[in-house]
Fold these 3 entries.
Entry 1:
Amino acid sequence: MDALQRDPRVLAAIRETIAAARRSRAGPPPNWASEVAERYRRASDPSLRPVLNATGVVLHTNLGRAPLARQAVDAMVAVAAGYSSLEFDLPSGSRGRRSEHARAILRRLTGAEDALVVNNAAGALVLALDALGQGGEIAVSRGELIEIGGSFRIPDILARSGARLHEIGTTNRTHLDDYARALRHGVRALLIVHRSNFAQRGFVATPEPRAIAELARAAGVPCIHDLGSGLLADLSPAGLTGEPRIPDAVAAGADIVIFSGDKLLGGPQAGCMVGASAAIGRCRESPFARAVRADKLTLAALGATLRLYEGGADALREIPVLAMLLAAPAELELRARELAGCCPRSLRTELVPGSSAVGGGAFPDAQLPTTLVALSHETLGAEALALRLRTGDPAMVARVGGGRVLLDPRTLALEDFPAAAAALAAAAEPGDLPQ
């Protein structure tokens, strides 16, 4: 009884075991104590765990998107372990502003006059609409009223910001004159939303962002450009083209350009805002800015990631997302052979051609060639084997296709192979499936 009072997880494990036994057609467990102990162990483990990503989806939203560069991890640990100069100016000994930590480097990398970092891109968009829209109407092309992950929709975000949606154009074609008519109607701002998670083809038309920004400037209203993924590097060597680069969007003249830190940028979750000093300044001074401000860990990791870009080739080599996207097919084939060699003998392996995905709502049409390791087990089906991999320690998430488990080495670093071998060995062992 004392144990139950001291630790509520014990009672919860007992209740779960009894409930599972009542649901099971096989009857009660052979050993009640062992079953309770196992459920207690699961409850004691953290639910947020490291995972080996063998899916080949580089920016896997459900698996935390971008893995951080070693330099970014080190920077986070350095400020997390003690106190930091988050809002303290060391030379003067007076209070500082956290918004200054990434400001200068973002300006240098993007060519913008000013910059501000908040906790995510959706928050950045709400902040921009709140500060610049002033509760008025915001003009958006019907072809850009997109839904992003988790059922978040641009119209809903507009409504939450207090702005009112003014739809222009059609689903497939929007012309510059549609924006001009909206300005004559009295809209407070023009919003451009990059269609990062789907593509339009056929009879389509969209004005260039530069033309929209110039039209807004002539009318004296702000232009906001939501880029989504936040690309700084040149990924054309991997055949990845069509995604706008941040410096190009800034040069096109939008008052505010918004992008994510944890997608193609390869850093932590963050909403980055760059652009004209007057527009960014209004966002910085908005009362809502405090509600979406970035914490010290985010600023530390983002700053370290951005400094790698200033090193040029260092970014392509050190930032995991970029290294994975630029991995050559020949290199991936060699890694697939090594990964297959890590598999226990009870797993039949075959190397098959396949494709990886960028993920994260970026380059939706891109198919990156890779070599997959196809696995089959003499007694376990593919879904059962995949379940064992997901629930093992370490946990591994893989694809299932054609009745086999598929491992993509693009998203498994070489240093992950020993852990992957352990996961595969444990999954292939005889035993009951997890409940």
Entry 2:
Amino acid sequence: MPQQKSKQIIGLFGFGVVGEGLYHVLENSHTTDATIKKICIKDPEKERILPHESFTTNQDELLDDKEINLIVELISDAEQAFDIVSQALKKGKSVVSGNKKMLAAHLPELIELQEKTGAALLYDASACGSIPVIRNLEEYYDNDLLLSITGILNGSSNFVLSKIFNDKKEYPESVKEAQQLGFAEADPSLDMGGWDSLYKVVILALHGFGTLVNPSDVFVSGIANLQADDIRFAREKGYRLKLVAQATKINGKNFNLMVMPKMVTEEEYIYNVENEYNGVIIEGAFYEKQFMFGKGAGGHPTGSSVLSDITARMHGYKYEYKKRKYFNIPEHTNDVTVKVYLRFKNLLDFSHFEFEEIEEKLSSKSFNYVIGTIKLSNLIHIRKLIQTLDVFLAFFDNPGK
């Protein structure tokens, strides 16, 4: 890794929760030789903590400024973020980004741009807030011994589930509290639907296994349909429900990605991960399970992760994508079976699910469920339909062939 150290003159895009969090973190990092020169924003009328001259609405003021040698992109619009990041890389400016949706959708192009221009793109802040998962996968786990990455990757949905299970609050009330605290967006569907976790696990799969996976090829199911009957079932059986994303190697040639609520047992590390915290379990041959824990939502924790990428660039750090260069890249597959809990209202809804085997079932006037194994490929086939049904899905264990 190159050892040169240079002052970072930053052009910052976005001054929301994370952008402002980065500003505060940077102000209190007295040994970091980095300065924000200009901030590009969308709404010039919004009241902000910095003077008016710190801001602009013209992105070219940052991209064309030769003094600015690092672009930090922290906006919510994925396509606009891709335009900013790709333009910056083409101009030879390195970039730090936190936009996981943009990254997951455009990783092939972004890797190619880095190779062509020599500029670097760092994005540890895009996955798991303050936990440095990506850099650990790149550096410490830079071998083919990795078996799985499992975790709670979204602090907002985990906060909601904690309020439901620990404080016995209803789902709508818990979502509203998460929004008031700045953990969830005005439209919470990205977090509660599992999409935020999807984008993150696609990014982790690249650094963990070397494989570029299209997000549309991954099964996702969230917690928006969670009801009191599901919570009661979990409590009575000794489980806690957690929204879990995981990448699991099936054999030496294949691996699977999925995002679903999970019935988590007391023995599992993520059982006690509560509120806005994230927890990631990395399992490998010979070193078994290792656990990383930290805040996954909020301006300061994510801003701290952005600062880590900024200081890494000061020392010339860039991702090498080692798994793609030095090892046989496994293929993503949905040809796996998974044990699930399915709660449904009527038999018509249930008829869409082709179970391989049913281990347990209950039928009543208001509450029906089955526990059994099903092909993930079947769930992928009906994933859009599932979103329209009055059903709730959760899984129990890792998928198997």
Entry 3:
Amino acid sequence: MGKKIPLRQCVGCGEMKGKKEMVRILKTTEGDIVLDMTGKKNGRGAYLCRSMECLKKAKKGRGLERSFKINIPNEVYEGLEKEFEEFEAE
């Protein structure tokens, strides 16, 4: 039997995908919301597909806010969008 692939649900579109195919959004112990490229940082994580589309869906459907149980200001989403653009350009 092959190794089990850890699946995560996208907070944007709700699809289940392999952890490696997704981006982890992290709520740090200080309460900051950041993109965790390594997937290893400490804090509460939520996963998104690697597309701007899903980030927009997560914002509209308040997926990240539900995951982290906090209100997320627009500036945070704007910051994440900027990081996503750089990330998609790679």
